[in-house]
Amino acid sequence: MVEVRGLRVRFGAVEAVSGIDLDARPGQATALLGRNGAGKSTTMRVLAGVVPPTEGTVHVAGHDLRTDRLAAQHRLGYCPDVGGLVPRATPWEHLQLAARLRRLDDWEDRARDLLERFELGAVTHRVTAGFSHGMGRRMSVVLAAFHRPAVLLLDEPFDGVDPLGVEATMDVIADARAAGACVLVSTHLRELAIEACTTALVLRGGAQVADVSAQELAGEDGARAYRSLLD
Ligand SMILES: Nc1ncnc2c1ncn2[C@@H]1O[C@H](COP(=O)(O)OP(=O)(O)OP(=O)(O)O)[C@@H](O)[C@H]1O
């Protein structure tokens, strides 16, 4: 569902990603873990078709991103680590536009349900310019998951989000997996990654230093193993 081979991304002299291989399958959730600057967001941006790879191949939902980017983007939902919301538009307008662009029918009940689950019901018709950081994060997750994408990419979805928002995000991930979607979650929060995901890819300085089952990073032993991967 998501297949990455030999991915490298350079920004001038900076090598943000230096050789990543990844296989993420339907019904699974994969965590991208690592410290600040490890290359998580750059990898997610490549998968979302926002940043082109310098080297390597990326297939998303069977589409090669180099030759078939729009088809791949049609099948994915992406919550970027920053931005992504139109300040002058309300949550309802965001969802209305997404529904039009994707030609969704009967989308209103799902839109209302997601906004309620993320406690955004009361601000459905308020412009997002005044949203707190956590409200913006929650709205970005709603938008990413709204059209039930085959590939759900969540970049730092838990960042600054309160416990109810975290729970709602966990539910969205579980629902997507149950529906056969392939989920990727970028975070530096090991414990939430373990709870949400089946496998974990640990990045350090742009390189992949581990590709393990999430359970291998659980508990005190897992915490020690994770720290040793980061040092
Ligand atoms: N557009 C860019 N131009 C130049 N350098 C960049 C650009 N985007 C990312 N980088 C660099 O690439 C490296 C990886 O950044 P990236 O944002 O992917 O890390 P990250 O793991 O997501 O970090 P964080 O946890 O802080 O979000 C960093 O050294 C960063 O400064």
TrEMBL record:
What InterPro entries does UniProt report for this protein, alphabetically? AAA+_ATPase (IPR003593), ABC_transporter-like_ATP-bd (IPR003439), P-loop_NTPase (IPR027417)
Keyword Nucleotide-binding assigned: yes
- GO molecular function terms here? ATP binding; ATP hydrolysis activity
- Gene3D superfamilies on file: P-loop containing nucleotide triphosphate hydrolases
UniProt keyword annotations, A-Z: ATP-binding, Nucleotide-binding, Transport
What region holds the ABC transporter domain? 2-230
- Similarity comment: Belongs to the ABC transporter superfamily.
Protein name from the UniProt record: ABC transporter ATP-binding protein
